[in-house]
Amino acid sequence: MQTELTQTGKLLKPNGRLAQVGWARQPLLDCNLEAARFYRLGLFQRFRIKRWDYYAIFSPKRFFSATIADLGYAANIFVYSMDFETGDLHEEGLVIPLGKGVQLPRNSTEGDSRFENEKACLTFSLRTDERHLSVSWPGFHEGRGIQAEITLACPTGNESMNIVIPIGRKRFYYNRKINCLPASGTVKYGDLIETLETKTCLGSLDWGRGVWEYQSYWNWASASGFLPDGRMIGLNLGCGFGDLSKAGENAFILENRIHKLEQVKFDYVSHDFMKPWKFTDTEERMDLVFTPFKDRTAHTNLGVIFSEVHQIFGRYNGKVVTDDGKVVQIKDLIGFAEEHHARW
Predict the structure, then answer these.
(1) Pairing mode, if any, of strands 327-343 and 306-321?
(2) How far is residue 303's CA from residue 343's CA, in Å, rounded to a whole number?
(3) How far apart are CA 311 and CA 35, in angstroms?
(4) Phi-psi region of 89 (alpha: psi -120 to 50; beta: other; left: phi over 0)
(5) Rounded Cα gap, residues 322 and 328, in angstroms
(6) Strand 29-30 and strand 9-10: pairing?
(7) Which of the residues 41, 83, 168, 299 has an alpha carbon 20 to 30 A from that of 193?
(8) What pLDDT does residue 309 have?
């Protein structure tokens, strides 16, 4: 059973507990993280709170991603790019002690996210009905450099996947996923300049805030693309974290409208990620096969902070069924699916 939230309010009560638990089509809750009560001494709260903005852009030729994340003990800034035809992938990251210089807004509907130092400058700006990404990293890939100026159309009325769930007694997760954001602008990678056009390029946002268990594990799958008839289709699937009894993040997004799913099974072989994955749900509204073509493996080991992610890129084929019972065929939709282990 899934609980849909429809009322606005605060994320946390004065005692630090969640005011509401469930999922929503819009970001309804004010993310008042100052009310968190994980430790008795408020001075230490910040070290357990995790905040991030992760943007992903799919073009016909390339995947581009940029992230600003504050993990409490340190910030993690990273950018990566992959060529679909050649499989060439390169990633650069910065670890910033105590998150110095990181700016992340209170809510996903307000303010800008920003980080700048002598190596890189990332700014994610929120404008009326659009978001703008500005990335400059001159030393990226041994001086090849990467710069991006990307505008993502994001009309206020479009639906997104929002969940609020508890993790144990004191922990929680507040997350917003926006798929199928028409993208325009440019990505300059070395001598290569790629122009993005809204008819062929789509972006997505993973906006997360919460207090997690120190050792955490999850699966996530996502895609944003087009059906043969030109309609936009997105996938957002996840499991492996928190109490999902009242809400999960499983949904597909058709023309900016959420079609909510209940439990979805990630059927794959861990540690043999390049074998096909299968996705089915408990209501028989999803039947997809995901065929991988690239394994992006990323490791972070800073002692107190450890992360290992296998983000597998591939193509989704199969079908989904809308809320009103219509079958939608999906063919060669490029996206990713991942397994992530973290100690943070």
Answers:
(1) antiparallel
(2) 9
(3) 34
(4) beta
(5) 7
(6) parallel
(7) 299
(8) 92
User: Which DSSP string do the residues of 323-343 spell out, in sequence order?
Assistant: TTS-EEEEEEEEEEEEEEEEE
Alpha-carbon distances, residue 198 vs 4, 21, 58, 59, 202 (angstroms): 31, 35, 11, 9, 7
Beta-bridge partner residues of 270: none
CB atoms within 10 A of CB 26: 17
Q: What one-letter code names the amino acid at 242?
A: G
Of 53, 24, 48, 325, residue with least CA distance to 207: 53
* Cα 291 from Cα 314, distance rounded (Å): 5
Q: How far are the Cα atoms of 92, 220, 232, 251, 314 from residue 340, in angstroms, in the given order?
A: 19, 8, 27, 20, 17
Residue 176 confidence class, pLDDT cut points 50, 70, 90: very high
Integer Cα distance of 111 and 104 in angstroms:
8
Distance CA 69, CA 53 (A): 6
**Has residue 43 got a pLDDT over 70?**
no
- Tell me how crowded residue 307 is: count the other CB atoms within 10 A of its CB: 17
Place of tokens 């929002």: 162
Per the CB < 8 A criterion, the answer to whether 95 and 74 are in contact is yes
Give every CB contact of residue 199 below 8 A, 6+ residues apart in sequence: none
Q: Give the DSSP letter of residue 17.
A: S
| End-to-end Cα distance, the chain | 30
* Residue 175 per-residue DSSP state: E
Average pLDDT, the chain: 94
Q: For residue 238, how many other CB atoms are within 10 A of its CB?
A: 23
pLDDT for position 145: 97
| DSSP states along 270-323 | TT-TTSPEEEEETTS-EEEEEEEEEEEEEEEE-SS-EEEEEEEEEEEEEEEE-T
Which residue bears the tokens 């993790």?
167
- Tokens of residue 249, six digits: 């993040």
Q: If you count them, how many residues does the chain have?
A: 344
Beta bridge partners of 29: 9
Question: Tokens standing for 147?
Answer: 């710069």
CA dist 98 and 108 (Å) reads 22
